[in-house]
Each structure stands twice: as structure tokens, then as C-alpha cells.
Amino acid sequence: MDELAVRSDVAVRGIAVDLGSVIPLRRPGGAGPSADGHVLVDGRRTTIPIVADSPYRLRDGRLLHDGTDMGVEVTTIARPRFYDLTTADGVRYEQLARLHGSDVLATTVVQTCVRYGEADRCRFCAIEQSLESGATTAVKTPEQLAEVAEAAVRLDGVRQMVMTTGTSNGRDRGARHLARCTRAVKAAVPGLAVQVQCEPPAPDDLAALTALRDAGADAIGIHVESLDDAVRRRWMPGKGAVPLEQYWAAWDEAVRLFGPNAVSTYLIVGLGEDPDELVAGAAELIRRGVYPFVVPYRPIPGTLAAAAGDPPPSGTLLADVTSRVAALLRAAGMRGADQAAGCAACGACSALAAAGG
User: Fold this and answer.
1) Containing domain of residue 67, as a range?
2) Which residue among 42, 65, 243, 281 is least packed, with the fewest CB closer than 10 Å?
3) Left (φ > 0), alpha (ψ -120 to 50) or beta: where does 85 sit?
């Protein structure tokens, strides 16, 4: 199997971990289509579900498939040192931000979402589960995040930061709190690249995007997950009620402010969208300067989709869509690795980097 095929298959089937093998860096749930094991696969940041009955196994730093060595080196990532610190007001740094990949600091600045009621919730999302378990706090202050970011850079070599938010009732959808947090982080660690992520602000408040840029954000993610309205109504009934026209308007304005290949959106494979239409939608995003970050749907514990038994896509489907979108990105001269910060710059949750995208 080539690298793309292996990464795509492992992304949806996960790996089993033998006794004696340890993956110190884990994220079992939270906002968005996360996975729970952070490793380096042949040097690339990768997130992989831990699945007991997977045909793939991690053993002595090697990836095996049904007992056969795949010729792939898997390196675990040490627990970061900043996790051992606590703020002056008694909050563990680990509750405020987490290490993703090997050098990305990530946080959800507001861990609640107005769409989390069962009738409106995104079926793949468990944003409030980590809050209920005590793993995080409801609202992170700018001062707290600045403190954590400084320590993560100093102690663990963090090179970029991603800040996302649950959606608020405000017309800015939470963007202005993200701006306050960004400004504080940039003041504390001026050289740290930051990506912010939020829903499109209301059409009459696109100035919230300007506030994010003026606060110092280097990149922005405005995540739609699917461009198929039927899929959006089923999988994201709350977000699906936001017309796609609002997304296109926000993306266009964000590209104007941040530049091409500094704006991204998630496209999730496995929600039922026709693959050809998904690729066509990705092509239009690329034409307008927006990077489509292609990831698989993963059944995360605590989500509505996992409870309903919705399966992930096949590795073959994921590899096919990923390879086609990567070809479009290459033709446009857009690479995730060229972005200053964010999910595409990290690349751990997608196989796009393995396909040159």
C-alpha cells in the first residue's frame, strides 16, 4: 500500500495498541471530528483512533497490519511539560489548552455552544462532553491563554496555536472573544502564529472578521463540513439552518482580509455526500482561495452519531477523495504546509499532506 492508502485506511480503522506500547498524548473527545491518539507516522503529525479490534497494531515503534510490518515508523509524542503547571487562580494549564500533533497548541475558548441541544447539535461533535467531565473549563480568559501559550512555547517548543469556539448567541458568533484572546496571546508571544476558528458572523457583522485580523490572527477557519444542504440538515441541523450564502460571503471577506490559502474549512468524508459533488465543491473553494481540509467522519464516543452506530467511510473512499482534492490544491499552488497556523498547517487529522496537498 502506498502512503496515502495506508494513512487513509488507518485514519478510519484506527490502531490497536499492544501491552507495553503507550501513546502519552491523547484527546478522547471534544469539539469537531477529533481523533484520540497523537503520533508521528514517518515523521508526519497524525491523529489516529485507538480501536481494540483494528487489524493495525502499534508495536515497538512500527505499524503492523495483520502481523505484517508495513515499513512505517510510528513515533509517540511525550506528554508536554506545560501540562504540569497551574495558573495563579488554580486552573491546570491542561484544562485550558492541549498539545495537538507535536508542536501545535489548541484550545476551545468557549466550551459551550448554543447549538448543543439535541435538536440542533452537530451529530459528530461532543464539545460539551469534556466540560462535563471536568477536563476543561467553560470560558478561557485572554490572560489565562496568554500565560499558557508563553509556557508552551518556552517549555515544549510549540510553534503555532489554534483557537476555536463554541457558537454564541451574539451576531459575531463568538468571534470578538476570540479576538480578545488572540490579542493577549500575541502580546505575550509575538512570534507565535495563530489560527482562529468560528462560524460565519451574521451578514451585517462581517466586521467581526476584521477584528480577528486586527487582533493579530494569521489565519482563519470557517468550517462548513459539507456543501450539500441535505447532508447539512441531517448531520448539522443547527448549523444547517445557516444559508450557505452566508458561508460564501464570510469566506470571500476572510480571503480579502487574510489572503488566499490563509482561510480554510473542513469537508468531512463519510456523511453521505456524493464524492464527485464534494470534490466539485472543494474545487470552487480552492478557486476562491479557501483551503478545503478533507477529513474522515470518525465515531467519537459521546456524539449522537456514535450512539446511532453511524460507521466511518472506507479507507478507499477517503483516499480517492483526498487524492483528487490534493491534485486540485497542487494545481492551484495551495499547500497546507505553507499556511502559518491551523489545522491544514498541522495536517494531523487529514491525509492531504501525504498526497501533496
Assistant:
1) 3-355
2) 243
3) beta
Residues 166-184 have pLDDT tens digits of: 999 999 999 999 999 999 9
Extract the C-alpha cell encoding 85: 503547571
Distance of CA 99 to CAs 25, 166, 173, 246, 299, Å? 8, 19, 25, 32, 22
The residue written with cell numbers 491534485 in the block is: 327
pLDDT tens, position by position, 282-306: 999 999 999 999 999 988 888 999 9
| Pick from 94, 81, 9, 83: nearest CA to 46 | 9
For residue 145, give the nearest of 104, 84, 189 by alpha carbon.
Answer: 189
Chain segment 340-350, per-residue pLDDT in tens: 999 999 998 89
Total tally of structural domains belonging to the chain:
1
Query: What is the model's pLDDT at position 214?
Result: 98
pTM for the whole thing?
0.95
- Which CATH number belongs to the domain containing residue 133 in this structure? 3.20.20
Q: Are 291 and 334 in contact (CB under 8 A)?
A: yes
Burial bucket for residue 283 (CB in 10 Å: 0-12, 13-18, 19+): middle
